[in-house]
Design goal:
There is one protein chain. The chain starts with a helix and ends with a strand. Strands 4-5-3-8-9 form a 5-stranded mixed sheet, with helices on both faces. The chain has a two-stranded antiparallel sheet with strand order 1-2. The protein is elongated, with a radius of gyration of 32 Å. 62% of the residues lie in helices and 14% in strands. Helix 1 packs across helix 4 and helix 4 (104-133) runs antiparallel to helix 5 (139-166). The longest helix has 38 residues, at 207-244. By secondary structure, the chain is an alpha+beta fold.
Length: 413
């Protein structure tokens, strides 16, 4: 059995030991049974609104917890009974819906142990500090905020330890990120206020008001959940679109986005400088070193071009070592100066790369072709044709000795 599983079972055994301390044994009366049924039903309903994330091979469910109020009301043994019933309902639900992890059964014992210990800590902390809290303004509410902070930190610490033992987290930074995930004062305050009100109603046995508070929490939570899901879906769509239009190596736009943007700019009426740039003798670099060194040169070239872009300009990786630029809203002379700055920058720099366990410097140059025109739908020249003309001008730069710019201003022809 792995160290992580031993730790999980240790938490469960520790919760049993604390729960069966005779002094704090729960009275299984009608009030407790009603509370147990209500908390189990609404906790199970709230489970549908959980946020699911992954850490390594494990799934983490974040859902609102009512363990603090129930733990204070029922004591360690009462909390153990509640967590056992609730966690096995969750277990069977996951098995039925086929969303259970391979180790879900043992995870259930971890959850029972972890949350029972958290509820027990809430019970002891509240019992010890409530006399002092009663003497302070808003003492009851401040005490509940402290209880929720401590129990949440305790359950997060258990999670970090079990993931560290399983190897799902390996660094202190990963542990800190997991410890602080979804933890802020607003979250603590929301959980503290809900649990504080629930405990008051439990102690007064106001069952109708207790149910109303649960329902209100559910209605508010489902509204926020729907909005968060919509925001998450939009983020995922935007991320997918970004990946679809980005070059993996350089992070610049790719050919697919270039083709899309050319269609858009055809109707724009803008003055545009279409530039095609290519690394000189790139095959020789690959043959002399390796493709990893070649990739370093490509990335360096892309970053150099990006440094000289202005706000409206756009850079694409249109081929292996070929890049295309759309220089927008500027004169032909401004386009020339901008490209010359790129050439000058390349002349003064080389690329640092690792080759055969040594750090080497790889100098390189590039050639450019510039076609300048107005993207007017009434003209015969389109962006697609402009790109072909710029590519031909690039070849002219290669023939003339490389490391230079060849250009054509269509407005003067």
């Amino acid at each position: 059995m792995s160290k992580a599983r031993v730790f999980d079972l240790f938490l469960f055994v520790a919760s049993l030991a604390i729960a069966f301390i005779p002094t704090y044994a729960v009275v299984l009366d009608v009030t407790y049974i009603k509370a147990l049924l209500l908390y189990t039903v609404f906790s199970s309903i709230y489970f549908q609104l959980r946020i699911v994330t992954r850490s390594g091979n494990s799934t983490i469910d974040y859902a609102i917890s009512y363990t603090s109020s129930f733990g204070i009301f029922a004591g360690p043994l009462g909390t153990l009974l509640f967590e056992t019933v609730y966690r096995f309902i969750v277990y069977f639900y996951k098995k039925k819906t086929k969303t259970a992890d391979p180790g879900e059964f043992l995870d259930t014992f971890y959850n029972i142990g972890s949350f029972t210990l958290g509820g027990s800590a809430a019970y002891y902390l509240y019992t010890a500090l409530s006399p002092l809290a009663d003497k302070l303004p808003l003492g009851y509410w401040l005490l509940f905020l402290l209880v929720v902070c401590v129990t949440t930190l305790l359950s997060s610490t258990f999670l970090v330890l079990t993931f560290a033992l399983s190897g799902d987290i390996k660094t202190r930074r990963e542990a800190r990120n997991l410890l602080l995930r979804s933890r802020n004062l607003l979250d603590f305050s929301k959980v503290a206020l809900s649990n504080a009100l629930l405990l008051r109603l439990l102690q007064m046995e106001k069952w109708e008001m207790l149910i109303a508070l649960f329902v209100l929490n559910y209605v508010v939570s489902i509204s926020f959940y729907s909005k968060s899901q919509s925001a998450q879906h939009k983020y995922e769509r935007d991320k997918f679109e970004q990946m679809a239009y980005r070059d993996f190596l350089t992070g610049t736009y790719n050919r697919a986005h270039m083709d899309k943007m050319m269609k858009e700019l055809n109707q724009s009426g803008e003055y545009i400088g279409i530039v095609v740039a290519d690394i000189d003798r790139f095959k020789k670099i690959n043959d002399s070193y390796n493709h990893a060194v070649g990739d370093r040169v490509i990335v360096h070239f892309a970053k150099t071009l990006q440094k000289h872009l202005q706000e409206q300009d756009v850079l694409f990786r249109s081929g292996g070592e070929e890049f295309t630029l759309f220089l927008r809203d500027k004169t032909f002379e401004e386009c020339q100066r901008q490209i010359q700055e790129m050439l000058d920058s390349l002349h003064d720099h080389s690329v640092s790369a690792e080759f055969e366990e040594q750090v080497i410097r790889v100098p390189y140059s590039a050639s450019f072709g510039l076609f300048y025109y107005k993207a007017d739908p009434d003209q015969k020249t389109s962006m697609e044709k402009g790109y072909v003309y710029a590519d031909q001008l690039l070849l002219e730069s290669k023939k003339l000795g490389r490391n230079r710019l060849s250009y054509r201003n269509d407005l003067e022809s």
